[in-house]
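Can you give me the bound-state structure? Components:
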Amino acid sequence: MDGGGYNFYSGLKTSMEQQRMSPKSPLPGFVDFHGKRKQMVKIQVLEREIGVLQEELKSLEGLHPASRCCKELDAFVGSISDPFTPIKESDTESHHFRKQICSVPWICCSSSCLLQKKMAKLCCCSCCSSSNSKCTGSNCLKTASKCAQNCC
Amino acid sequence: MSVTELKECHSATTDTVNNLRDRLKQKRLSLLDTDISGYARSQGRTPVSFGPTDLVCCRTLQGHTGKVYSLDWTSERNQIVSASQDGRLIVWNALTRQKIHAIKLPCAWVMSCAFSPTGQSVACGGLDSVCSIFNLSSPTDKDGNVPVTRMLSGHKGYVSSCQYVPDEAAHLITGSGDQTCVLWDVTTGLKTSVFGGEFQSGHAADVLSISINGSNSRMFASGSCDATARLWDTRVASRAVRTFHGHEGDVNAIKFFPDGNRFGTGSEDGTCRLFDIRTGHQLQVYYQQHGDDIPPVTSIAFSISGRLLFAGYANGDCYVWDTLLAKVVLNIGSLQDSHEGRISCLGLSADGSALCTGGWDTNLKIWAFGGHRRT
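Here's the bound-state model for the whole set.
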């Protein structure tokens, strides 16, 4: 009798546990509805994209070709002075070169600077005039403004 | 309609979209009568050439103990803020190499940083999905750290990029892994506008980069993992002004051209491209073989005239492109004193006289031109 009662309750417990662990599937209609909404949203997004693409296609009618944009860009680039754009060396450039070096705060006369030899020839500031002198970066930075005033 | 019918409708609509895209592509190709290099050659433009000592590394900024991921210059004062995997922002005096501030971040996984237009604040964002603002004038806390002034919370994904709106220290734009860009009011910490996202037309994948137009700060461009760049008007958040196709991979970097009518992009596909914002034309592709591999472009910047395009690549190269003739004129990555490994970020000083590069070797380097130049 005990075994029978035990078996009944254990069976009920097992069944309830099973229900908790693996609930029944929702009604078929519910799953279908959820899937519909997702598909409808996707279609709406695509329809919006169609509208945008059609507008863009229309805007291309009568649009000028790329060569006009290239011409504008080329004209702009040529009109702006650029610190990074090199020019060819010539005798007449030395004055401009001196002016250039003394006005740019980044290039200093430190011993590690690759321009030291050029500076020794062209710059008149005391820290750079001697090719034997080794001026530190910080010293040179302090005198950079003086260099700009005195040399240029 | 049943789900099956809806799926059929979806398939048909997709076909319509693809068909329109093809027609658009063909129409655009027909308008590309030349590219920039073709035009410049026809005008007899002289190529830019650099001598071996023309571009020099004149400063190395050492102090980070992790990879540098992002940097930004001030608009004045020659200061730089850098963000690193070591969990710190460092504000540098670029001329003297001094560290002015070293800010310990609440989240070490930082991806982007930016200076405010006044130079009074810095912003950063990363994997915490938050953009944090630090006022550099604030008194430090008991540990000597600059405290967070404001946290811009709301993104549902990482913050990949951030930039203050020029001349508006109160507004900032972020790009995010949640596929949106957001315009923030820094004073209140609230979103002013959301560009893209679930209910609006926008990027279909993570936003990796943004750039605000220096000539018209109402316009900004974003680059995404969906391989497109998009142009936005901050007054119209509902949809992009234009979408730019062409790249075949993530658009990692984006920067407006100095004239404000074009922007450049750098991509995982190894190319840089130049697009015109008014017509949508792709004006130029910048690509050169790097050996056997095709390293992604990590970062780009234009020189002040736009004649040069600086592009950092994942393999440590940093090409200087002649934008008009589409030729590489120098590889900074191969110069003496260059970085070891990847150059992850770069930026030009406000006056255009110096380029700063940041790398995975934990250093930042300042490059300047030391040869003859046009006056």
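A couple of observations. The radius of gyration of chain A is 40 Å. Chain A touches chain B through 59 residues (CB under 8 Å).
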